[in-house]
Design a protein that fits this description.
It contains eight helices and no strands. The protein is mainly α.
Length: 137
């Protein structure tokens, strides 16, 4: 319960399951990130995992499932939260979604310009120079 409670206060993206959705969530919540590694194919890993699963006896599968029960509850909550966040982001953007996120699409300067425009109204942005100087000490 505690893990799921804490998870609800986090940004969740499922990079290996939905790479494009992960990029949208990341770009929405962390627009200053302008580079991202390209998706790696895990197809071979999934096939190996499935064939291994099929080769296990039923008692072993049940034992593994029982052992990982709590982890799977947290994973299901994270998957639900990720899908909910992505749906909320897409609803809020409407037709703009084609140009977002700036993640991995723009140069550093273009990403900075997008972020500057989006965050110009915040106190953090207005005090960014002083904050940067303080953090660089």
């Amino acid at each position: 319960r505690t893990a799921i409670w804490r998870l609800k206060r986090c940004v969740v993206g499922l990079q290996t399951e939905d790479f494009d959705g992960f990029r949208e969530v990341l770009g929405f919540h962390f627009p200053w990130i302008h580079q991202l590694r390209k998706e790696r194919s895990s197809k071979g890993e999934k096939i190996r995992g499935r064939s291994l699963l099929k080769s296990l006896p039923h008692f072993a599968i049940r034992l593994i499932a029982d052992f990982n029960k709590k982890d799977m509850q947290v994973y299901r909550a994270a998957r639900h939260q990720s899908r909910t966040q992505l749906a909320r982001i897409r609803r809020s953007r409407g037709d703009e979604s084609a140009s977002w996120p700036p993640v991995a699409k723009e140069s550093e300067q273009e990403a900075k310009a997008i972020v500057d425009e989006a965050l110009a109204h915040t106190a953090t942005f207005r005090n960014h120079q002083r904050l940067s100087e303080y953090l660089m000490r």
